[in-house]
């Protein structure tokens, strides 16, 4: 088993402590050279022949199997491609069609906006007969009533890092006759997952956060193998067809989860992701999780000792927290800008959340102490009051 951290596998700029891998993972060294090879050799020299000669055609399924291993799902049960928002839409449409007599989509008020927007858009396209319920995250378990068609939740809350009890909620959903969809955006590569054992009907996620696949890297969708053959995909694209190159006029779904593919795979991004996944070789998710909890507890203690004005927004109990730590602070936006100026990169989420990703693949205790010291300096000195830190960037 390989020890952590694995900093040498990442190309991080000097002088930066990166606490934003929960939004965009850093560049794995192997990914840059693989991109060069795919672009220059495969695309440049092999041209269209590369679909066969460089294995581009098999890439989506191969990468899907590597993700399946990281989320505890069966080989062949994960398809890759598109964006997470698209995968949410596909999963929710399939879930609603599995429960045609029910009209309620249950999510929570902390869910990522795109997931909620997708549910709203889908409901509109289905004639506005469905109701989207969004109780507070801690009230979801009790809100799973027998009129719920689909429970659609993000496992780790993007703002607070609060973790839903996946096994308990899935069991409750199934007991109530509802279909379960988990969004693993902030879980895949962050916490150990046993999707096969927990057995939700669907799990979706992105690969540019803790899986370090790069900006815009493809999303994934897992469909439980025993239901997949009954799914008629709403986005019936040719790459989800049983025989794409037969060019038949009518759609016939591919066997198994491959039917959730839509169009041409993003070959360069998939190749980058494939290379990025090498950093997990020989790494146990349990070891990553234990290290993340140690580092997170240290971070909380160090920040709280220096900054009484920052209020912990994440659960104090590590078992109830994903791989991020968030604090509430009214001047949070400016404080994050001041920290970025000092080489400590975290991010801000409305209305007052300072958010820090804890990623043991490339962070150690010295980084955590240095980051906490910088936070103490920015808050304690009042440096965040500087007008230059109040200017809002387009992407925050
Ligand atoms: C929980 C969650 N769901 C959905 C999304 C949207 O993903 P995408 O922009 O890849 O569609 C994100 C992040 O952007 C997210 O954090
Ligand atoms: N996908 C992003 C993007 O294209 C630009 C900026 C940020 C993102 C993110 O992924 C945000 C992220 N889902 C979050 O938890 O806030």
Automatic annotation (TrEMBL):
Keyword Disulfide bond attributed: no
Reactions performed catalytically: 3-hydroxy-L-kynurenine + H2O = 3-hydroxyanthranilate + L-alanine + H(+); L-kynurenine + H2O = anthranilate + L-alanine + H(+)
Pfam families (UniProt xref): DegT_DnrJ_EryC1, KYNU_C
This enzyme's EC code(s): 3.7.1.3
One BP annotation, GO: NAD+ biosynthetic process
One CC-aspect GO term: cytoplasm
Gene Ontology MF annotations: kynureninase activity; pyridoxal phosphate binding
Keywords on record: Hydrolase, Pyridine nucleotide biosynthesis, Pyridoxal phosphate
Names of required cofactors: pyridoxal 5'-phosphate
Functional description taken from the UniProt entry: Catalyzes the cleavage of L-kynurenine (L-Kyn) and L-3-hydroxykynurenine (L-3OHKyn) into anthranilic acid (AA) and 3-hydroxyanthranilic acid (3-OHAA), respectively.
Subunit annotation: Homodimer.
Name assigned to this protein: Kynureninase
Source organism of this protein record: Meridianimarinicoccus roseus
Gene from which this protein is expressed: kynU
């Amino acid at each position: 088993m390989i020890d952590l951290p694995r900093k040498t596998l990442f190309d991080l700029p000097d002088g930066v402590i990166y606490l934003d891998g929960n939004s965009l993972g850093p560049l794995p060294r192997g990914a840059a050279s693989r991109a060069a090879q795919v672009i220059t050799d495969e695309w440049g020299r092999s041209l269209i022949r590369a679909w066969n000669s460089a294995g581009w055609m098999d890439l989506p399924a191969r990468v899907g199997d590597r993700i399946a291993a990281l989320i505890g799902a069966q080989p062949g049960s994960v398809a890759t491609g598109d964006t997470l928002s698209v995968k949410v839409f596909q999963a929710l449409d399939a879930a609603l069609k599995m429960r045609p007599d029910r009209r309620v989509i249950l999510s929570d008020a902390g869910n990522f906006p795109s997931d909620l927007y997708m549910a709203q858009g889908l409901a509109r396209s289905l004639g506005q007969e469905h109701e989207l319920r969004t109780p507070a995250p801690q009230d979801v378990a009790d809100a799973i009533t027998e009129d719920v068609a689909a429970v659609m939740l993000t496992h780790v809350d993007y703002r607070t890092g609060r973790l839903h009890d996946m096994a308990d909620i899935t069991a409750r959903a199934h007991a109530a006759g509802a279909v379960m969809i988990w969004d693993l955006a902030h879980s895949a590569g962050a916490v150990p997952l046993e999707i096969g054992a927990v057995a939700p009907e669907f799990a979706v996620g992105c690969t540019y956060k803790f899986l370090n696949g790069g900006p815009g890297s493809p999303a994934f969708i897992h469909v439980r193998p025993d239901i997949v053959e009954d799914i008629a995909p709403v986005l019936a694209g040719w790459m989800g067809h049983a025989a794409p190159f037969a060019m038949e006029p009518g759609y016939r779904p591919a066997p198994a989860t491959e039917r959730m593919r839509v169009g041409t795979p993003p070959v360069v991004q998939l190749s980058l992701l494939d290379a990025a996944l090498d950093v997990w070789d020989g790494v146990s998710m349990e070891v990553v999780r234990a290290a993340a909890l140690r580092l997170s507890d240290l971070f909380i203690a160090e920040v709280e000792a220096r900054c009484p004005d920052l209020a912990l927004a994440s659960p104090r109990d590590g078992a109830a927290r994903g791989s991020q730590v968030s604090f509430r602070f009214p001047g949070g936006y400016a404080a994050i800008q001041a920290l970025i100026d000092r080489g400590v990169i975290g991010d801000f989420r409305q209305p007052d959340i300072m958010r820090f990703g804890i990623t043991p693949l490339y962070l150690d205790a010295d980084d955590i102490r240095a980051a906490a010291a910088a936070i103490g300096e920015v808050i304690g000195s009042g440096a965040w009051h500087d007008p230059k830190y109040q200017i809002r960037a387009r992407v925050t």
